[in-house]
Model the fold of this input.
Amino acid sequence: DIQLTQSPSFLSASVGDRVTITCRASQGISSYLAWYQQKPGKAPKLLIYAASTLQSGVPSRFSGSGSGTEFTLTISSLQPEDFATYYCQQLNSYPPRFGPGTKVDIK
Amino acid sequence: EVQLVESGGGLVQPGGSLRLSCAASGFTFSSYAMHWVRQAPGKGLEYVSAISSNGGSTYYANSVKGRFTISRDNSKNTLYLQMGSLRAEDMAVYYCARDSGSFTGALAFDYWGQGTLVTVSS
Done:
């Protein structure tokens, strides 16, 4: 099974900051990576799929990059509604596991 | 509007059984593979199970294999998860999610239900 790690696991940032989260896969997954945002008590929301394709309706301040084993999610200018936990997910092979998550908190 | 609504969660004793349902609307249910994902209290997302659009192919995480059964009724636009031999570690919010691609070529889970809580306790 492919394992995912995320770094950092927690980050404290201010509104307007540029934030970058990294996801690493234990083996190459091409571009079969998605990013989700989850707020407390809510279901995850798809942000990016195929490593860099923005899901319809997601603000353009979110972007994704990478291929193979290393991927990044960038929020160009953090907004109050972006404070949440972010998960990556690999979809190259079953099981389509999730990373452990990165919690973005208010500084 | 795509909607996924889970139901069937509740309190069950260790060793007991429960059937979760996920009612789908706003899209052609029979054209999409579907998944179950769970989240234990305060923990991350754990993948549980998948079923192809026609129900002919299924997948289970090792943690639930042999105890859980995924199924679907395309005439009723409903996804199911039959859970048996429940353990304390199965306690979680269970989400159903739509596969944006196909069973063997998913790109993401593009729509999620609101989740249903399963509590396993004596």
In short: Residues 69 and 82 of chain B are 5 Å apart (CA to CA). Chain B has a mean pLDDT of 96. The two ends of chain B are 40 Å apart (CA to CA).
